[in-house]
Amino acid sequence: xxxxxxxxxxxxxxxxxxxxxxxKGGSERPEVRRWNRQESxxxxxxxxxxxxxxxxxxxxxxxxVGPVLxxxxxxxxxxxxxxxxxxxxxxSNNRKKKDKKGFEKVLKIAEKIGLSIKEASKHDxxxxxxxxxHQGLVLDASPLEMVKIMELDPISVEEGKGSLWVALDEVTDxxxxxxxIRSAYFFGASGIVLCAKNSAPLSGVVSKASAxxxxxxxxxxxxxxxxxxxxxxxxxxxVLGASVSxxxxxxxxxxxxxxxxxxxxSEGTGLRxxxxxxxxxxxxxxxxxxxxxxxxxxDGETSSNxxxxxxxxxxxxxxxxxxxxxxxxxxxxxxxxxxxxxxxxDGHGQTVELQ
Length: 355
Description:
alpha/beta
């Protein structure tokens, strides 16, 4: 290949180029100067992009004022770093008074335990939390550890009335799981039992959905839900399975008080058949269903006035069933919430603030 320096065309190009460059090496043409500035800006931007400023989360990110404060207070996790949104205005005019106090408590606890506090941009915190509402706080902490459980201990005098555990059979939605844990903590349930498989992991999403209750609730897991329920029933526990079956007793007929395991199924299919059979009793929440909807239609028999089979009709009515987290709240209030209200003086009942 012929060297470019020997090509006469190169001399012409070089001469034209030399004529457009001043003594300082800059171009006389404005459009060329603009291009040079843009090229330099592009190199700078590319260099900044390659140097990521995203926080490197070692464990898992717990975010939001309530969950972070609960995690730091409970001390069940190992803490690696606390990321605070840079330039965050904590004045009472721009933030809720409750959030401001919670934020200040978080910083105070972090300083007390010697936790590394780092600033990060709102964009970076948004990226870490997948654009979920972090309120300017992300805590890098180890995952929660759960204790394995085979069965609940035999009923004792110390157990007393009103003791209730919630067993969740393959609840996979983290928002539902968090909401159930929040209701269970609010009403004073003794603890939560999860399946080892096919359950939502205890992530920062669950902690946020629980408003921090996840950090404070007693948590257990079992490998065999059916065996756990059967063994607990043998130890004297009443095992109530939430179901829409015609065999289920209306919630109004259930007497609160005896030590109980409340079993809730997955969002789509409810309790698995074997889990349902492991319950000592099934309970349903009465709803505003059509008068002509009979138990036989729900159990699979075809109505003479309809072309739909019972199972098809049941599937059609799925929109009229309650979300599992909503059902949990209703059941918990009936089974232990009313007892709490009766034991408190007038006007001293618990209230909950929605977030």
